[in-house]
Specification:
Layout lengths: L13 H4 L4 H12 L9 H12 L5 H8 L3 H13 L19 E9 L4 H12 L4 E6 L6 E7 L1 H11 L7 E8 L13
Antiparallel strand pairs: 1-3, 1-4, 2-3
Helix pairs in contact: 3-4, 4-5
């Protein structure tokens, strides 16, 4: 399970974030509310981002050594990258196969209606389903592209019958089981 401490995450409501101890909330909330401004990344910024993408658990001293900076300069630069919005959060990537969700299904869904309230309701319902790893409102023949983790065909059937098809407004869906993952990165590589 991953924990995002700040950033734009529609899956975290005020109610769910209240489960975070208040000291952490007080510490991280200023980062969430700072205005993020665009600035040009220099070589040192890119080195820091690249090192943290490979191992976000590095201590500041280890990170500073890897990127060739003093610990103070590295700390300040990393905090500035966070404040500027280049770092959205730090997460633990969990092995979904170990949790019993060995298969990925790609779903394409078309809704009956396309008014803002219908799209908002469907999006909120998708966000509440733990099997849904990613969901996008897309252009083209289908309205949504959805990535779902399931436990085989029986798990997928349960997901459809017990969860997805209970969401009102679905006109049509099409699904594909992924045979092999060719590339899987949690974010854009620097």
């Amino acid at each position: 399970m991953g924990f995002l401490f700040w950033g734009n995450n529609p899956n975290i409501s005020e109610r769910s974030s209240s489960k975070i101890p208040s000291r952490l909330t007080e510490f991280f909330s200023p980062m969430a509310t700072r205005e993020r401004t665009a600035r040009t990344l220099d070589n040192q910024d890119r080195k820091i981002l690249s090192a943290l993408q490979k191992n976000a658990r590095l201590s500041n001293a280890e990170l500073a050594e890897q990127v060739g900076m003093s610990t103070t300069a590295c700390w300040n630069r990393t905090r500035q990258l966070e404040a500027d919005g280049y770092i959205d959060g730090y997460v633990a990537l969990v092995n979904q196969q170990k949790l019993g969700y060995a298969d990925i299904v790609i779903l394409e869904v078309t809704l009956d209606r396309h008014e803002d309230d219908a799209l908002a309701r469907f999006g909120a319902a998708l966000a509440a389903l733990p099997e849904v790893l990613e969901a996008y409102l897309v252009s083209g023949e289908y309205d949504y592209w959805i990535k779902v983790a399931v436990d085989g065909t029986a798990g997928y059937e349960r997901f459809l019958r017990e969860k997805l098809y209970r969401i009102a407004g679905i006109r049509h869906s099409r699904s594909m089981f992924a045979l092999r993952c060719m590339k899987d990165v949690p974010s854009m590589q620097v």
